[in-house]
Amino acid sequence: MSTRWYPIYQRGNPQLRVFLPNFWMKMVRPHPKQLPNIVHFQCSMEMTKYDIKNYLEKIYNIPVVDVRTKITLGRFRKDYGQGYIVKDDDVKYAYIVLPKDMTFKFPEIFDSKKNDEEENMKSLDEAKKNFSDYLEKNKDRTDVPSWFSI
Amino acid sequence: MNFSLVKNVLKYASGFCYRTKNVTSMCASSVITKGFHTTPSNSDLMEFFDIKKNWNETNIRVGRAWKLDELRIKSNVDLHKLWYILLKERNMLYTMEHECYEKVRLFPNPERIDKVQESMNNIETVIRERNIAYYKLETGETGERPVEDVVNMFGLPEKYKKQEYHIPQFMNSRWVRPYLEHGYINSLAVKKFYRLYKEKQYNETRRARNRNFNHVQHLLKRFPNMDLEKLKAEYPDVDIEKAKHTKKARGHFLPKY
């Protein structure tokens, strides 16, 4: 888009304004354990510390005391089966320091253990039922492969 | 440059935004004018997460993405606000997706991200259209980034998207040097490469031509009653009249032509 193409900054020029920022930020679980007023983010690789500070302050209205960033190298791993080398994407992390009196705890989004058990049993039952149906259907034609009919 | 138009258009667009959850579903409600509902804006870090009701859901139903025609009738201010709503929504979805991945869960309805992204692309398209219209009216040019045909280091033609530099072109000795009379681009090595490259391209087209001609001959041999118009449409560069009378096109039947 034309608005993504900025003129180069020369001294005396008006300050550059971003009208439709395309940056993304996602909050991630802090690792290792952090002070309660520090929040971890992953963000667009192009974002600078100033961008991150402005992004949070202007769009989300979050007071930011300090921003620290780091870029982690993506893993080099072998592809399963083929064996060629795959390089995962690099990730930019931003550590945001909130004011002293503000705290943030990463919420526990998935907490229900009982539900899990139930759902597992349900899917297991379903699989059992499907298999018995399949056996029933192919009782008279044991030589037909499984992919033959719908 | 065209940068200034967006500045003009969005001059009155203030930075604040509404906070809504499931933004994609808003387009459905925009048709019904009687109740425009937004949840009160809570500026908080919890905006990076979905509403609590959806946390353990396995199926989150949302509407469709914003269409181009719906966005074209919106004002620039509205588009600006909508952009930030979508931006926040996308961040929220990315956060939830990451958390699901960490906890080895299925991310419910991942197509939500695509819908938001499509809406954002559509907004960009609309803004760009307006930008071009404004520039054509004011300056007679599109205001898009200019593209120039250049010869690259291998002597091949290339599209070059122009950009700004701190010094003019002729002062940029690093850029000028390869284009000089005894520079790299006019060297024997590049000329030889270009000659061989053209030869290779020519051979490829020649082989394709011969291949098609032979194929048409064999088709005529095997199917003498074939629809010749369709054959002509399929192989436009083959001379079918010539192919009919060749030796290869004769089958075990009396020659028809």
Automatic annotation (TrEMBL), chain A:
Keyword Amino-acid biosynthesis part of the UniProt annotation: no
Compartment annotation: Mitochondrion
Keyword presence, Acyltransferase: no
Gene Ontology cellular-component terms listed: mitochondrial large ribosomal subunit
Keywords from the UniProt entry: Mitochondrion, Ribonucleoprotein, Ribosomal protein
GO biological process: mitochondrial translation
MF terms (GO), sorted A to Z: structural constituent of ribosome
Oligomeric and partner information: Component of the mitochondrial ribosome large subunit (39S) which comprises a 16S rRNA and about 50 distinct proteins.
Family: Belongs to the universal ribosomal protein uL23 family.
Protein name, as recorded: Large ribosomal subunit protein uL23m
Organism of derivation: Parnassius mnemosyne (clouded apollo)
Upper lineage: Eukaryota, Metazoa, Ecdysozoa, Arthropoda, Hexapoda
From TrEMBL, chain B:
Keywords carried by this UniProt record: Mitochondrion, Ribonucleoprotein, Ribosomal protein
Any one GO molecular function term: structural constituent of ribosome
Domain of life of the organism encoding this protein: Eukaryota
GO biological process, one term: mitochondrial translation
Keyword presence, Ribosomal protein: yes
Any one Gene Ontology cellular component term annotated for this protein: mitochondrial large ribosomal subunit
Annotated localization: Mitochondrion
Pfam families found in the cross-reference section: MRP-L47
Family as reported in the entry's similarity comment: Belongs to the universal ribosomal protein uL29 family.
Protein name: Large ribosomal subunit protein uL29m
Record organism: Parnassius mnemosyne (clouded apollo)
Organism lineage: Eukaryota, Metazoa, Ecdysozoa, Arthropoda, Hexapoda
